[in-house]
Design a protein that fits this description.
The structure holds 2 protein chains of 2 kinds. Chain A is mostly helical. Helices cover 70% and strands 4% of the residues of chain A. Chain B has 3 domains: 34 residues; 115 residues, Penicillin-binding protein 2a (Domain 2) (Alpha-Beta Complex); 66 residues, 2-Layer Sandwich (Alpha-Beta Plaits), CATH 3.30.70. Helices cover 40% and strands 25% of the residues of chain B. In chain B, the strands form 3 sheets. In chain B, strands 2, 3, 4, 5 and 10 form a 5-stranded mixed beta sheet that branches. Chain B has a 3-stranded antiparallel beta sheet with strand order 1-8-9. In chain B, helix 3 runs antiparallel to helix 4. The longest helix of chain B is centred in the first third of the chain and has 32 residues. The termini of chain B are far apart. Classes of the chains: A mainly alpha, B alpha+beta.
Chain lengths: 359, 227
C-alpha cells in the first residue's frame, strides 16, 4: 500500500464533493421516511453506509493503480462470475433477480461490478491497435457483461454499462463515429423488446401520454410530476411531503430526485445538481492532468462518465424527460451496494490520478 | 494512444454534453415545481383529495313535556375487510392484543366500542388498513308499538338518517339539520393520511321538535284509532 503523502486540492475537493452529495442523500432519505413508524432508521443506516463508502474510497485510493492494472483479469473474472450465477442463486426483489444475501446483507452485484467492468474494458482496449478491432472487442465484451444483467432483468443498469462502453471507446478511438454502429444495434434491440412485450409498450405509452391511463401505466409519471409540483421554490415541510411518503414508489431510491424536490424545493435541489456537475468537472481535471498514462486517464474519465450518465438517467426519469426505469442516483439514493460501488469507482480514479502525478 | 489535445477536447465535449443535460433537468424542475405548478397541484388534488359530507346527529322528537319520543345514538363498531394480500394470522394476533375475546371474522368484529377501546384499537391495529372503526348511527324510539305509525320510519344510509313516514318525514328537514363538509387526503391504498383532515364547512345540527301533546295523549289517540 502506498504511504501517506501530500494530497492535492483537487483530490480533496473530489472527496468533499462526494461527502456533500452523500449528506444530501441522507437528507433525502429522511424526508421520504418522515411519516414512517421509525423515521430515523433508514437515514441512519444510509449515513453509516456513506461512511463505509468513504472508507472504501480512501482505501481504494491508497492502493497503487499499478496493482489494479495487474489484477484487472482477476477482478474482471470475479466481477463477471458473480453476475453469471445471479440468475441461479439471486433473490427476486421488485420483479428483479438481482440481489444476493450475504450474512443477512442484501448485495447487488451488478452495482459492485461496475469498477471492474470499466477496468476490464480499458484493459481490453489496450490490446487493440485499430479502431475496428477496438469496436468489435469492446462492444463484444460489453454484450457479454450485460447479458446476465439483462436476464435479471435490469435494463437501467444495462444502459449504464453501455454508457461505459461508449465512454471508453470515444476516449480512445480516432474514429469515434464508429460507435454509432453498436449503439444503433442496441437501440434496435430495445425497440424490438418494447414491441414484443405489452407491459413495456404500455410503459412507453404511459410516458408519452400519462393522461391516457393516469391510474395505470401513466401512474408513475404522474406521481413524479405531482411530487415536484408540491415542492415549489423552497419545498413542503418534511411531514407534509405527501407524495414522497404516500405515493412515490421507492421514494428514497429510484425516485430520490422527485423526493428531494418535493421536500427541499427548487432552491434545495439545485445545489445537488451543482455538486453532481462539480464532481464530474473535478474528475475531468484529474483525467486531463494524467497525460502520460492512457489506462489511468481513460479510467478517470470513464468513471466520471459512468457516474454522470447514471445521474442523468435518474434525473431524466424523475423529471419525466425519460421513460421510467429503476436507476439510483450515485451517492444520493438509498442503497449500500450503489454507495460502495460509487465509492470504489472514485477511489480507484483517485489512485489513477495519484499514480500519474508521481505521488 | 490519443494525443493529449484530442483527449482533452473529447473530455471537454462530453462534459459539456453532460452539463447541458443537468441544465435541462434544472429547467424542467423549475417548470414542474414553479411555472406549471398549479396545473399539477389541481391534478394532485383530484387524485388524492376526497371531499365528503358528514351529517350531524338527527335531532329529537319530544312531547309537550320534553319526554323524548325518538332520538339518535352513535355507536362505533370494529370492521374487518380482508384483501387478497391480507396476512390473517398477523391480523388475528394484533386483534388478540386488544380484544382477546373477539375472534377474527369478516365484517363486524366487535360492536359498540367505548372511547378507550377505539383509541386502543387505533393504536394496535394501525398497521392493518383492513381494520376500520365505522360509525353506526341508530334511531331509537320510545318503547310503545302504538306510537310507531305516528312517529314514522327512518332510513339509515351510512351516517345519514332520513325520515320516510309519519312525523319523521313531516319534520325531516328540521330534524336533519344541514350536513357539513370535510376534505381529507388519501394515500395510494385510499386510506386517510393522518393529519390531512380539515373542515370545509361545519355541520348545522337539527333542532328538536316539541310536539303539541303529551305521550299519554298520543297513546290514547292511537288506542282510539285502532279498529
Amino acid at each position: 500500500m502506498r504511504s501517506p503523502e501530500k494530497v492535492s486540492f483537487l483530490e480533496l475537493w473530489i472527496v468533499a464533493t462526494v461527502f456533500l452529495l452523500g449528506l444530501w442523500g441522507v437528507l433525502t432519505v429522511a424526508s421520504a421516511q418522515s411519516t414512517a413508524a421509525e423515521p430515523l432508521a433508514l437515514p441512519l443506516r444510509q449515513l453509516c453506509r456513506l461512511l463505509l463508502a468513504l472508507a472504501a474510497l480512501v482505501l481504494a485510493w491508497r492502493v497503487p493503480f499499478a496493482v489494479y492494472r495487474k489484477l484487472t483479469p482477476v477482478l474482471a473474472v470475479l466481477g463477471y462470475g458473480v453476475l453469471l450465477v445471479l440468475p441461479l442463486v439471486g433473490e427476486r426483489i421488485n420483479g428483479m433477480r438481482g440481489w444476493v444475501a450475504l450474512w443477512g446483507i442484501q448485495i447487488q452485484p451488478s452495482e459492485l461490478s461496475k469498477p471492474f467492468f470499466l477496468l476490464s474494458l480499458i484493459f481490453l482496449n489496450g490490446l487493440c491497435r485499430d479502431d475496428r478491432r477496438r469496436l468489435l472487442v469492446l462492444s463484444g465484451a460489453t454484450l457479454i457483461w450485460t447479458l446476465p444483467v439483462m436476464v435479471q432483468p435490469d435494463f437501467g443498469t444495462t444502459v449504464i454499462y453501455w454508457c461505459g462502453f461508449l465512454a471508453v471507446y470515444v476516449l480512445t478511438a480516432r474514429r469515434w463515429q464508429l460507435a454509432a454502429l453498436p449503439v444503433t444495434g442496441m437501440l434496435l434491440l430495445a425497440a424490438g423488446f418494447v414491441w414484443s412485450r405489452p407491459y413495456a409498450w404500455r410503459r412507453l405509452a404511459g410516458f408519452i401520454n400519462p393522461e391516457s391511463d393516469a391510474l395505470g401505466s401513466g401512474w408513475h409519471i404522474r406521481q413524479f410530476q405531482l411530487a415536484m409540483a408540491h415542492g415549489d421554490w423552497f419545498g413542503a415541510k418534511m411531514q407534509q411531503a405527501v407524495w414522497s411518503n404516500y405515493y412515490l414508489p421507492l421514494a428514497y431510491n429510484d425516485s430520490a430526485y422527485a423526493t428531494m424536490v418535493e421536500t427541499l424545493g427548487v432552491a434545495g435541489s439545485l445545489p445537488a445538481l451543482v455538486l453532481a456537475g462539480l464532481l464530474a468537472f473535478f474528475l475531468y481535471r484529474l483525467a486531463v492532468r494524467s497525460v502520460h498514462n492512457e489506462f489511468a486517464r481513460v479510467y478517470i474519465a470513464g468513471a466520471a462518465l459512468l457516474l454522470l450518465s447514471q445521474t442523468l438517467v435518474h434525473l431524466g426519469v424523475n423529471a419525466t424527460l425519460l421513460p421510467p426505469t429503476g436507476l439510483t442516483w450515485p451517492f444520493i439514493s438509498y442503497g449500500g451496494s450503489s454507495l460502495l460501488s460509487c465509492g470504489l469507482l472514485v477511489g480507484i480514479a483517485l489512485s489513477a490520478g495519484s499514480e500519474e502525478s508521481g505521488r | 494512444m490519443l494525443e493529449n489535445d484530442r483527449f482533452r477536447g473529447r473530455c471537454r465535449w462530453l462534459l459539456l454534453l453532460a452539463l447541458t443535460g443537468l441544465l435541462l433537468v434544472a429547467l424542467r424542475t423549475a417548470y414542474l415545481a414553479v411555472f406549471a405548478r398549479e396545473k399539477y397541484l389541481t391534478l394532485g388534488r383530484e387524485l388524492a383529495s376526497s371531499t365528503r359530507d358528514y351529517y350531524p346527529p338527527r335531532a329529537r322528537l319530544l312531547d309537550r313535556d320534553g319526554v323524548a319520543l325518538a332520538w339518535s345514538e352513535d355507536y362505533f363498531d370494529l370492521h374487518f375487510t380482508p384483501g387478497p394480500e391480507t396476512d390473517r394470522t398477523a391480523a388475528a394476533q394484533a386483534l388478540a392484543t386488544v380484544f382477546p375475546d373477539s375472534p377474527l371474522v369478516e365484517g363486524v368484529v366487535r360492536r359498540q366500542l367505548s372511547a378507550r377501546e377505539t383509541e386502543l384499537a387505533a393504536r394496535a391495529l394501525a398497521a392493518f388498513p383492513e381494520f376500520r372503526v365505522v360509525l353506526r348511527r341508530e334511531r331509537l324510539r320510545i318503547d310503545d308499538p302504538r306510537l310507531r305509525v305516528l312517529l314514522g320510519e327512518v332510513t339509515v344510509d351510512g351516517n345519514r338518517q332520513r325520515g320516510i313516514s309519519g312525523l319523521e318525514l313531516q319534520y325531516d328537514e328540521r330534524l336533519a339539520g344541514r350536513p357539513g363538509r370535510y376534505e381529507v387526503l388519501l394515500d395510494r391504498e385510499r386510506q386517510w393520511i393522518s393529519g390531512s383532515w380539515h373542515l370545509v364547512r361545519p355541520a348545522e345540527p337539527g333542532a328538536d321538535v316539541r310536539l303539541p301533546r303529551s305521550v299519554a295523549e298520543y297513546q290514547a289517540e292511537a288506542e282510539h284509532a285502532q279498529p
